[in-house]
Structures are given as structure tokens and as C-alpha cells.
């Protein structure tokens, strides 16, 4: 007999080979009807799989969050069946689950699919789902599979069969007349997919990502538990489209990209103003705790060999050499892809004492990393970017306190930008790693405790979790993911504990007892890439930046040319008060001017007419508000002084005032 443990903790004996299906039926008819799969010791499996050893069993129903992956994968199979039914001669390749959906890559000799084909395929899918064929699994031999696919003319599948390592089972999933080579698992029948799915778009993709091979058509789909979930997702996409930072960047005149600089940003005046405000903000947050440093952009190859980058990371790096033919010095340099080796040189310069630790070095470091051209996406994925990077050199005893200090800073920064929902995940030791198990045990123990404290201290605001095996090869790390205004998640901050790099570079400090010791190095970034963080901010705010970040805070404009002198005086007063103001005295209709500045997302427009000039007042129009407000210039200045104060400055002032009053 085998022993099966149920979620309520009860343990029951069963004959070896009993299926999840049989157990579900034994529990209740209704459970068996709702069951779509099972989880054995937490791993999803077919409900019809025999259970051959003691295990923890969970019956997975369609409502289970884990079923979503199955719904999507099953939908990919059904899409492939639909395509082959509608377009005979089309070859199938692979069809995995991706974030929010699935895709399948097809080879079609007649030419690629077009968006016009999608409604037809979608309708066929609904037809197949209505037939509700069962998914059944068979294990085939290699020859059996190759023969089958050969008779069907499926050349790509034969290649896939050949790529499966010897000794590994070759699984075939059948649904009615159609079958596919697949690792599974799948739900019990295609009907379980439901109708909350939609085919989204087509794209080209090379077979195996190899540009020397066939060009395939990739059809993307999305699938959800319910129609409401699907509708919400489609609405989110629509909203994301409106907020696309590339579009807003153009409309607000913030930045551009061009062919000669793939993946590097041309910041225009307004975009650079926001960038610099962000840097200034981060600088204020570091004050007192960190030393800001600056390490060279271009460093000799040998340094990257010592750091290990040359060996493991070279394909992501840009090499640099003098360009002159006659140049005597033909040393090979690299543009830095990371700031860590530079900071280690600064740490190593001179003898370090334990008294100097923790030593926190920060840099707004510009790094370059090679990204494939297909991977680049506006500011979100670039080849050159600025990291708000820092490295903390500390003792092992100081590690936990430093992790907490970094965590407090990260959460406080995110909150200042309106990101209240944050997830912190601990990534633990990967299979390939350096350092002894004892070292990892210790670090993971310390960081697990820190994680528990983060959750407890946040009063439920911060969600936490573990990513098993996802740590860096040199140490465990925390990953910070924030949720934006339309519910999308962005992983930004990281805290990585490193036992490796200081040792590689021979960095040490002299401890109390006069012994040389290797410091722990903590890598941390809050925004991550500041370019990407700005992209996230643009989309999060939909271009409606808070006043302190707005590139242009006020435009002063006129209803009539009679008010020109007064408007110019108002503009000069604002400039004197440190406000980023512009003046628009064009002889255009006021509605036209307001519309234009609103389109550029200027948060405040001060309209001046004859009456305002006489009364030393302005008519304040706020972006997004229909109600202009007549205000004295003095009051408007006071309002601006308050609203243009960055949140950290306002907070520090309030704290100081409270202390003074004590
Ligand atoms: Zn599959
Ligand atoms: Zn680093």
C-alpha cells in the first residue's frame, strides 16, 4: 500500500497505481467532476496518472490558480488542431505557455498567417472545445513517433523527437483525432478550457531562433479562468496602449531613439529634466549613509577576467579598442556592463579597517550591455542605461541590519512614487554556484529571517515569497516587484549578497584581532535601470507627473495681447521662485493654446487676461480639471511652493518641525 497525504493533513492508504481520478471519485462525485488535474508533492500532473509512491496529493479543480497554466497550454494544443483542420499542409512546431497566455509556431508553405485569419481560427477552436474530447496520454518509442510524424509530413516534430535525450519518455497527448508531442500535463478534456480566450496577434519567428532556418508564423493567444478576467485583461491592455511610454515620450517631447544608436536614448531637454529630478531625489535619499563615487566607463580586459565577466558574460559586453590603424596601444578594453568591479577597486585602494564598515559606495553608473535587437523595447529594455547602483562592504554580523536598511529605503522610495503594493521575494541557491554549503546555509538563514521581519513590519502591505533556486551563482538575493496603476508588475530593486567577488579581487579588511578578513559585498539597486524606471513612471502616471517631477510645471499664457506684459512679469516671478515655467504669448485662440499644452501634459496653465493683469491674479487651469480657478498671484506662488516640494523634502521638513516643537 502507498500512503497519500491530503491537504487537511489526513493520510490514507491506497493500492499503488491508483489514479488521482479514482481518488477524487472516492471523495465525491462533484469533486471528480470539477477536478482537472492533480498536484503530487506540489508538482502538477495528469489526473489519470497512476500514483506509485507515498505523496502529498491535491486535487486541482478548474478554479485553482494553478489550473490557469493548464488552461493556456491546452488552448495552445487546440489552436494547433484548429489551424491544421483549417489549413491542411501547415506544420506544427512548438506551443508553450507564456505570461498571460500562450503561442504556437507554425510553418506554412503558402506564406504567413495574417490577423484576418485569427477570427476563423478562433471560431474553429470554440467548435473543438465544444466537442470536449478527452486528453489521453501515450508513451511512444522514438521510431514510432518519427514514423507517425513522417507520414504526416511534420519535419519539425521529427527534429524535436531527435532532440529528446535518450532514455527520456516520449509522451504523446491525444485529443480526439489530433495529437501532439508534449511533456504535459494537461487537463482531463478540451472542454475544460472554456471560452474565456482570444487570439491576439501574429508575428514572425525563426525556427529555434536561428535566422538561417525557416521563418515561422507565431500566433499569440490569451486565456483566462473567466470572461471577467479576460475582459479585465483586455481593458488593461487597452489602457497600457494609451499609456505607452514611447508614444507619451513623443507627445511630451521627452526622448527619442534612432538607427545609429540602437538601444541608447537621446534624452531631450524635458525628458532629461525628469531624469535629473529623479537623480537628485535619489541623491538626497543616500545622503549621510552612502558615499557617491564614480568609476571609469572603460577598463582593461584583464579586470573583467578577474571579475569573471570576460568568461561568463562576454557575449553581453561591448569591447573597445583605439580606432587608429597606427595606434601603438592595441590593448583591449570593455565598456563596463556592471559597476561592481570598479567599486571593488575603490574599496581596495588603501588598507581598510573594520572600523570603516559598513562602507556603502553608490554610483549612478552608466552601463552597457548587448541586447539582441529583437529584445529591445523603448526605455524598458535598452543597451545603455544608468543604474542607481550601490555596493555595501560589511562584516557577516552586519549583513542582516544592512538588508533591513536597504529594504526600508527601497520601500520608502517606491512609496514616494505612489507604488504601495510591493512584493519581496527571496531567491535561494541555484544548482550552479560558488561557495560552501555552510556559507549558503548561513546566508539563506539570515535572509529568510529578514524576509519574515519585512512581512511582519509592513503590517500586511508587503507580500513576500521564495523563488527556489533563482539566486545568483555568488549568493542569495531579494527581488522587489512593484505593481503599477493598471495592475502590471515590474521587478525593479534587488539586494544581492555576494561571497565571491571580494575574494576574486583579493579585497580584505583588518579586523579587531588584527586578522585580514574578506568582507561581504551587498549589491543593491532601487530603481534598477533609471531609464526603465522612468518608462514605468511615465506609464504609471500616464504622463501626468506629480508637479515636482514635471519637466514644465507651469505655462503662463494670455487671452489677449493686452496682457502680454503682465504675463511675462508673472513668468519671470515664477522663474525667480524656482518654478520650471514657460510663457506662451502666441497670438492664438486661448482654447487652442490650452489644448496644445494639455496634450503635452503640462500640469498647470496660468491664463492671464486684462482682468488678471489689473488684479495681479492668474486663472489657474489644472490638467484634467474642467474648473479654472481665479487666484491671486501671491496665493498661486504659495500653492506652487507647497506642491513642487518633493515628497522626501516635505517629509524631512515636517519631521524637523515636529522635533522643534517638542
Ligand atoms: Zn503541449
Ligand atoms: Zn554589483
Plain-language structure description:
- The mean pLDDT is 94.
- This protein is 36% helix and 27% strand.
- The protein is built from 21 helices and 35 strands.
- Helix 8 (245-251) crosses helix 16 (530-541) and helix 13 packs across helix 14.
- The strands form nine sheets. An eight-stranded mixed sheet has the order 18-22-23-30-27-26-24-25. Strands 2-1-7-4-5 form a five-stranded mixed sheet.
- The relative contact order is 0.07.
- It folds into four domains: 2-61, Beta-grasp domain (Ubiquitin-like (UB roll)), CATH 3.10.20; 67-240, Threonyl-tRNA Synthetase, Chain A, domain 2 (2-Layer Sandwich), CATH 3.30.980; 255-319 and 332-541, BirA Bifunctional Protein, domain 2 (2-Layer Sandwich), CATH 3.30.930; 554-647, Anticodon-binding domain (Rossmann fold), CATH 3.40.50.
- By secondary structure, the chain is of the alpha+beta class.
- Bound molecules: zinc ion (2 copies).
- Residues 73, 77, 180, 182 line the site of one zinc ion.
